[in-house]
Fold each of these.
Amino acid sequence: MALIVQKYGGTSVGSPERIKNVARRVARWRADGHQVVVVVSAMSGETNRLIALAKEIQAQPDPRELDVMVSTGEQVTIALLSMALLDSGLKARSYTGGQVRILTDSAFTKARILSIDEQRMRADLDAGYVVVVAGFQGVDEAGNITTLGRGGSDTTGVALAAALKADECQIYTDVDGVYTTDPRIVPEARRLKTVTFEEMLEMASLGSKVLQIRSVEFAGKYRVKLRVLSSFEDHGDGTLITFEEDEKMEQAIISGIAFSRDEAKITVLGVPDRPGIAYQILGPVGDANVDVDMIVQNVGHDGSTDFSFTVHRNDYVKTLDVLKNVATHIKAREVQGGDKIAKVSIVGVGMRSHAGIASTAFRTLAEEGINIQMISTSEIKISVVIDEKYMELAVRVLHKAFGLDQPA
Amino acid sequence: MALIVQKYGGTSVGSPERIKNVARRVARWRADGHQVVVVVSAMSGETNRLIALAKEIQAQPDPRELDVMVSTGEQVTIALLSMALLDSGLKARSYTGGQVRILTDSAFTKARILSIDEQRMRADLDAGYVVVVAGFQGVDEAGNITTLGRGGSDTTGVALAAALKADECQIYTDVDGVYTTDPRIVPEARRLKTVTFEEMLEMASLGSKVLQIRSVEFAGKYRVKLRVLSSFEDHGDGTLITFEEDEKMEQAIISGIAFSRDEAKITVLGVPDRPGIAYQILGPVGDANVDVDMIVQNVGHDGSTDFSFTVHRNDYVKTLDVLKNVATHIKAREVQGGDKIAKVSIVGVGMRSHAGIASTAFRTLAEEGINIQMISTSEIKISVVIDEKYMELAVRVLHKAFGLDQPA
């Protein structure tokens, strides 16, 4: 008998029929003798409907009141799923985030979980109940309703699994696992049986939006065994997200190719090469609430250097504006930029112990005539910025070059 | 400076525009220096939408889970109204029933309020906030969400007014007060400036559905000054519901004519006239979950009597079925009935001190050739059962006979 936490997203509970399907799946796990806690999101479209309604009243909805409002989406789903479970003869009971109680800080619309009181859930589980918990929400010390931000239901699932010391946290979604890359771009992409937390973090932050990144961090921190599965298929083991050291089987060198078309690059040319210059450039950018992703600075010569970074494409114009003043102030020669770029990344823990990954990647791109504009590396990732028109080509040739289309 | 509790029903908050109107009205009360607590219902149609969704999952939705679900309707409204108040520059804060906290028993879908913790509201009011509370809902000792049953938002309003010792509880609705009778039947019907709690109870239970009857009982018990007003008009004082003894002005003898077409009558003929016979007839009816309204038994003769009562028209056939066996058992001669009846009632505390009301009523009906089938009286009410085709006529002539069409 295992204790399983299952999380179902908005698409998986998007209609009464789909909710009944979830109930059937839960019933099978119960029939196999397992204890089950289910975390659900709002029915697909509901959160957006509520936000739109709020904006009809207040252009910038008050964060506290917005949380009171959007948290109703999950509250409806927990009731419906509990009814479906009861209707199929199981014992079931729903809880809002506040009832569990999932204690958070008071940062409305993006709260962080501080603690979870698992006693009530455990008593219910021991009494044979399926416990159904609203994802995405909690309550602060003063009893105000809070939400964890978009995708926060994944975090709720992982946090409950951690609090209950569950044997596994299963994230049911509309894909059946984590792939070596997006199958829409590379039809030969394969589902990974396992991926490490570090790889998952790099993949998630690079646009493979299977799991919310905070939930992966959380799972890593509390050593929760996390599995991504499809809620639309009855078979398949999905992808297990593992701790590297637990991994007995031969680890593939490269796990996947991630990509993003959401960025723009900016280069400040002819920057005086002196201490503090990076801060002088990026300080004002941060003050303008712009998040910076890749940062590249090369060795300078003749007392000056070039400084490049990428931002979200939506922030491109705003960032150029900010830098106009900055460039004058620091006596830079020129500010250049471009928003027709893509970032492609090779991710794999095997990089740590295998040399030559970078050169294979660069040679592969060169053979296709793809020019690399920026390069940035971490211990388990190599990212390149290229012209966006070559993105699909780059993903395909790299996928093949690292043998990702071959059965593991 | 007064402390006012205002309650707005589903129609009054049925759209973003109407919610903004409510905010404007609240703002005027604040501008006049009053402290305001607002209780709101779900947006019109929302509760029915949620119940329909629940029934797609479970034909008879589980009561606990149904309460979790339908309580979201008011939760959305409190957030929207708070946003509208904030948007108009007021300080405002929303609370669910559980947050206030409105403690109820655990009778899901028809819970009763046990106590209200008014400290948090009072602190907010003293800090200049408008307090917006979800009607219709509460929380039981174990922290489960409960609802008070249909129309329960009125009860929430009155209960909050009682707990806060508010100066007045204002119920905003789609009519501008309590009328001498339904203006759709008698165009000359007048709005009553005042009506006593006892009269209101008789009127409400007789089909003048301005206020939920439990809220009126509650207001009477806790001596809450209750006023019914229109949420669609900016002027008018509505109808104040008073305690008789508080009333300084000359009280009208009759306050109104109420009527109902929802009933059916049943007569058990030739019942042996012996103790316990009423219980032998009505016991099985009650066991079948049928509520009995009027009960009439006349003096018997020759050792037998006739026993009549009315039930809701929907229960008519079921009640006849039940009585078939009963009649045989108690050796009654025959069971008769009819569902083409109407009940018309004259209500007024003035009856206590004025003779001749009944004879005026009976003469008025006789002059129009309207036959009276059953009569039942209380201290402040005379009800007659007549053929339903005469209902409108009876209401009109009685309204005129008691001078209700004349300015008070």
Amino acid sequence: MSTPTAARRTAARLVPVECEVAPLLDVAFSRWTTPVLWTLNEFGRQRFVELERRLGTITPKVLTQRLRQLERDGLVTRTYYPEMPPRVEYEISELGRTLGPLFALMATWAGRHMGEVEAARRAFDADS
Amino acid sequence: MSTPTAARRTAARLVPVECEVAPLLDVAFSRWTTPVLWTLNEFGRQRFVELERRLGTITPKVLTQRLRQLERDGLVTRTYYPEMPPRVEYEISELGRTLGPLFALMATWAGRHMGEVEAARRAFDADS
């Protein structure tokens, strides 16, 4: 018979499992990383001020941080033109482009199922 | 000729664009939401203590919060058995299962490209 004590004993034998998806979350799927990558993927090479405008509510500080992280992770390339005055442009890298099919699948999921998520929320809130 | 002032004028005409992927991030792709869903998807129906054990470092407080959020969003179902003592089990819902192909594609991407991300990081850090 299954009792909480038995369940606890079963659980004690379980070892933590590595979620294979988790490492990617920090790289490309967070509050601002995704919109930055998505915008560069959709609209091509852009200056800081263009990205900022398209992203709407991001602060310059957060945009600077995210771009630097994405550059470090090899997903975005930054090109500096030593003109007078200097010009800097950002572009999604070849590695970054490999995220395209994932973005497309996620957008399809959102289009198909976000209505169900919202309905579930309304039902849950009405119940509690 | 393109000057920063011209770029600023171009940017001023840009309107914010909706990132189609962003709404899904809060629902299924965050620090703990993903591992909880992924574990329920991989190992089936589980009690709290089993989930906790498999997730390794999650605190009971955060696990409780994530499960409640996922239940509210319709991705997880919670079944209460009024036994003595009571038993509660968690299971991924039919809606939650539709995330499966996304998880699979993300795991494939991570397996294929995380090495490139790490190499990019080493190169960036050596450079700066």
